[in-house]
Amino acid sequence: MIEISNFSFKYRESDQPVVSGIDLTIPDGAFVGITGAAGSGKSTLTYALNGIIPHCYPGDFYGSVVIDGLDTCDVVLTDVSQVVGSVCQDVDSQFVTSIVEDEVLYGLENFGVPRDEIEGRVSRALADMGISDLRDRVISSLSGGQKQKVAIASILALNPRVLVLDEPTAELDPASSQAVFDLLARYAREHGTTVVVVEQKIALLSQYADLLVIVDEGRIRFADEPAKVLEHSDELKRIGVNCPRSTTLMNRLRAEGLYGGASVRNVREAREALKEVLA
Ligand SMILES: Nc1ncnc2c1ncn2[C@@H]1O[C@H](COP(=O)(O)OP(=O)(O)OP(=O)(O)O)[C@@H](O)[C@H]1O
């Protein structure tokens, strides 16, 4: 369980807090999607979850962030890393070795995983990400999308109880993005891993998230199941979050009194809903 209570943070260099009054409870095994306009504070929230705040960025920290009973302010970063595996937005800054296999091995060896488990974990993580063929490649020679997959594989190999990923599909094509989300959802379902993903594509998040969080100017504007959040497509647009056109269309029909169902997340759901409207 993750409990963020009345959390605010001001970077030493910023004039005012960049996130304020954040209250969020995330049960174990939940799939949480976070989105919001550029600069709204999404990455800052992920830094609070993976311990980078307060351990690497100096600033004013108020409130508390407690992960599986660990208050991130009371423990060292390594303790947080044992529980939270994270993939940051700039994956290049995350790599510590030059070969794909070494990168996945690095974390396992650092975490003291028994030798006889290591090969199985490396192979499984690479296979899960569909990159077994990249095992011996030099990381700097990979495409942006391939690098993202290596970064995710390195974290999956560690079997963290919580996964925090900041725009993990930014460099991926739609099919690979879907495959990564499928995999994350499988980890949540089968291993009870709590997954927190920052993502620009609200349609993709809505398809997978149990809880969709919208951040606006450092505050949580909505935190609810996706269909409930999508009901507010006009307000979302005003704060820089564009819903799929199918969502906006069905919301307009609801406003006109022509549709009474839940907000739709995609064209397929809109098609079904329209059948009802036209019946
Ligand atoms: N290390 C830092 N020092 C000072 N200010 C920072 C730092 N990192 C981020 N900020 C500021 O905090 C605010 C929120 O940034 P953050 O990166 O958390 O937002 P974001 O929603 O993730 O943005 P994006 O979608 O563009 O990645 C921005 O005004 C940003 O300039």
TrEMBL record:
Segments forming domain ABC transporter: 2-242
- An example of a Pfam family matching this protein is ABC_tran
Q: Which GO terms describe its cellular component?
A: ATP-binding cassette (ABC) transporter complex
* Key words of the record: ATP-binding, Cell membrane, Membrane, Nucleotide-binding, Repeat, Translocase, Transport
Q: Where in the cell is it found?
A: Cell membrane
For molecular function, the Gene Ontology terms on record are:
ATP binding; ATP hydrolysis activity; ATPase-coupled transmembrane transporter activity
Topological category with respect to the lipid bilayer: Peripheral membrane protein
Functional summary from the UniProt entry: Probably part of an ABC transporter complex. Responsible for energy coupling to the transport system.
**Entries under PANTHER family matching the protein:** ABC TRANSPORTER ATP-BINDING COMPONENT (PTHR43553:SF23), HEAVY METAL TRANSPORTER (PTHR43553)
**What family does this belong to?**
Belongs to the ABC transporter superfamily.
Q: What name does the UniProt record give this protein? A: Energy-coupling factor ABC transporter ATP-binding protein
Organism of provenance: Enteroscipio rubneri
